[in-house]
Amino acid sequence: MNPFKGLPEATLIEDPSDLEPCRRDESHLRGTLPLALVKPHGPAALRELVRRAKAEGFGLVPRGAGTGKAGGCLPTERTVVVDFSAWPGEARVSPQDLCLRAPVSVLLRDVKAAAEAHGLFYPPDPNSWESCSLGGTLATNAGGPNACKYGMTRHWVLAVEALLEDGELHTFGISSVKANAGPSLGQLLIGSEGIFGFILGATLRLTPLPRERTTLLLPVKRWEDLLDLPGRLCGAGFLPSAFEFFDPAVLAELRAHGPEEARRLPGEALAILEFDERGSTSDAFLEGLLDLLGPVAEGLRVASDVRQREGIWAVRRMTSAFLKERHPKKVSEDIVVPRSRLRDFFAGLDRLGFPAVTYGHLGDGNLHVNLLAAGETDPALLDRQLMDLFRLAIDLGGTLSGEHGIGLAKREAFLALSDPAQIQALRALKRALDPQNIFNPGKVL
Ligand code: 2HG
Ligand code: ZN
């Protein structure tokens, strides 16, 4: 019997050709063909799906907008994709409580816009923020350029509404920054990529919208000159709301083949710095910054208007897609090292000796190391290169993923390189919360 027949409050898609798109996300991986794709519109669908998954022995794979970078939403063997794009509700702001409640189906750009309509700010800004769903950002604990000042998604979540293995929706957390009644199950669910249960909605913390912002372009001749700057700035009390960079290879590609705005980008390597605190547009602030930066600031340019600022950010935000289009089989990583170890990291990367280009979030040490030739590299060699890269980051006090998560892409490395006590504890939690392994099986652990 068809286990999906008569599923209440849901749209069902079973035609294999319609299922093809959900075998992909923004990683380099491809999932297996799922048994079906279900778009739930109400709790009855979820209750029934959980019941049938347990009875029939199939898994449930959550999907938002499919913009993930680690294969977390890709179907594995004998799974049904649960696409949350039709989950009902809208973003509602509570200015008194400085928070916003939204269902997972809302796009992140609409969450940010709802906050801004009240003069408030929801900071998380992964570069896919115009197209990713709130749900995806919660499941993966998304980062982005301004995490270097504001932290990641989890820092902005007050409460989580989640489907657990009893088939019911539960809320963990309250609409206040203070809540300390025991360990937080809500925080455990954020970034767990749907392996313990599915997040259906969240209450998000907001802060007043910054009223000033200055965007600076910092071209340099020797890109290594950038490496001490994040630590020096922070050490001197300057906390950028973004500090991004392109190494010479990425900048040259952008300039030669990128959009109009990219052709005019200066320098052999380039950093984009942004500050958004009160006073950051004043001459005094800029003078203080120039003093601190010293000779490296020779070519510093201030974005003169909104158009220029948006042009710069448009180039930065399309870099991942642009490189993928030019090198379809590239592999892009998102390792992190502490700011103070950036120089050691790049010296280590040189010693490893494989060709890699880098751009990303220099301000918080989260680097997108891209192996552009991955498609032409022997798979065993590629695995060794990636493991060496991860080990290098970990040995410097960093980690193998700063923002994209583990999913399928980094599962093996995560299992091999983590403290066994951590894996054991996470597996015990998985068994306790999902004894029949119905939630996103084969991911992370
Ligand atoms: C970015 O910062 C995204 O642009 C994607 O995190 C990076 O492709 C990548 O690895
Ligand atoms: Zn990134």
TrEMBL record:
Position of the signal peptide: none
Annotated InterPro entries: FAD-bd_oxidored_4_C, FAD-bd_PCMH, FAD-bd_PCMH-like_sf, FAD-bd_PCMH_sub2, FAD-linked_Oxase-like_C, FAD-linked_OxidoTrans_Type4, Oxid_FAD_bind_N, Vanillyl_alc_oxidase_C-sub2
Necessary cofactors: FAD
Keywords: FAD, Flavoprotein, Oxidoreductase
GO molecular function: FAD binding; oxidoreductase activity
The keyword Flavoprotein is assigned to this record: yes
Domain FAD-binding PCMH-type stretches: 30-209
The keyword Protein transport appears for this protein: no
Matching Gene3D superfamilies: 3.30.465.10, 3.30.70.2740, Vanillyl-alcohol Oxidase, Chain A, domain 4
Protein name in UniProt: FAD-binding oxidoreductase
Organism: Candidatus Geothrix skivensis
